[in-house]
Write a structure and sequence with these properties.
Helix 4 packs across helix 5. It contains 12 helices and 7 strands. The strands form 2 sheets. The protein has a 5-stranded mixed β-sheet, sandwiched between helices. A two-stranded antiparallel sheet has the order 1-2. With about 300 residues, the chain is an alpha/beta fold. Strand 1 and strand 2 form a beta hairpin.
Length: about 300
Amino acid sequence: MRFIAEHAGRQIGDGLVWGVEPICTVLTEHGAPIAPSTYYAARAAVPTARERRDEYLMVKISEIHARNRSVYGPRKVWMALNRAGVEVARCTVERLMSELGLVGTRRGKAVRTTLADPAAARPADLVRRKFAPLAPDRLWVADFTYVQTWSGTVYVAFVIDAYARRILGWRAAKTMHTELVLDALEQALWTRAREGSTDLAGLINHHDAGSQYTSIAFTERLAAAGVDDSVGAVGCALDNALAESVIGLFKTELIHRQGPWRTLDHVEAETAGYVHWFNTERLMEVNGDLPPVELEQAYYRHNPALAEVG
């Protein structure tokens, strides 16, 4: 039907145009039989309620998929639609996304960047793979990854609050020296101070045994902020699994989708936009399908006394 509608009336030379009947004849001769009367009847038919509904949903699905960096699969698109007041069955979203050719992202394998300093003193593991604190600012996790660019390798460090998986601080640099992770920590501290959280007593900052994190400058900054230091086992990704998970999303949803990467500035600009979206809009299944900032806000609405203490 669509082929006939697109080609009927097209000029073919000497003032002649394609008609519906000749097109139907050619299609029939090539194994796609259709009568002109069938085409005219279909064109005159009024779309069904389901067809109109599908057209509306396809527009909404496409908008949500594009607005969320084209990383959402059917489940998250379905959740986002319902959050926006568009009630629809998950199976319908799956069907329409398939028709539209829209898919979500899939994670690749993580690559380790930890280089331990055997001479450095190592704090104890205060977390022991328990990454589900009952409130914000009870446990932060930190790690960094790398991005290959046309101008060389860029390293990106993150500090994440484990309660809602919120990225509190990040930093990109051309070297993986202590300044990289220290600057990410400083931004995390600044983020909380700006929100009124000045007393971080009882907070644990957990990371791997990389030399950047066991350096004197980093451990002294944690002590000055009243934050307890914690280090996972050498060579065991599970001991810092939450940070690995968030960084895996960063690599899958941004780095692997939007390359090639040109420079440090290019990575910084796109990471800034990604972190804002991740914190304020990305639906997290572990958060009950709430974005990280929204889950933190919900916690303090239900615990106003704790918000005032911060």
